[in-house]
Design goal:
The protein has about 140 residues and is mainly alpha-helical. It has 6 helices and 2 strands. The protein folds into 2 domains: about 1-80, Multidrug-efflux Transporter Regulator, Chain: A, Domain 2 (Orthogonal Bundle), CATH 1.10.1660.10; about 85-135. The protein has helices spanning about 5-10, 15-20, 40-55, 60-65, 75, 85-135; strands at about 30, 35.
């Protein structure tokens, strides 16, 4: 199948499919006209790559599970090719995600604190201005 059909069958853009190929996650042969051609396994491979990227993995992470990428998604989850390496990769990626989440939480707390401070100052300033206007 050509890239357009693979794109339609997987929901991945042509650009994404070319990126997967560039990253070594997908292989294509070339026709005599230079067009990419993919075999039927490419559908599962693209679906699995999209799923893993959506879960926060990088192309480098996904290469660790490359032997399993041609499986249907349900079977892919049960793939036990080099389970220790795969588990270590998932745990490492989870640690990175948790660190980013903690950093975002710190940013959120700082913003909440600044907003509260600005609102309280605005309220104090407004109250003082009303007091001056009342002549008290």
């Amino acid at each position: 199948m050509q890239i357009g059909e693979l794109s339609e069958r997987t929901g991945a853009s042509r650009r994404s499919i070319r990126y997967y190929e560039q990253q070594g996650l997908l292989e294509a042969t070339r026709t005599s006209k230079g067009w990419r051609e993919y075999d039927a396994r490419a559908v599962n491979r693209v679906l699995n790559v999209r799923e893993l990227l959506g879960a926060g993995l990088t192309a480098e992470d996904i290469r660790v599970v490359a032997p399993c990428l041609d499986m249907k998604t349900e079977e892919f989850l049960a793939c036990d090719d080099s389970p220790d390496e795969v588990l270590a990769m998932y745990e490492q990626r989870l640690a990175i995600v948790e660190a980013k989440a903690a950093e975002l939480q710190r940013h959120r707390s700082e913003l909440v604190e600044r907003i509260a401070h600005l609102r309280s100052e605005a309220a104090d300033t407004e109250g003082f201005a009303q007091l001056l206007r009342s002549g008290a």
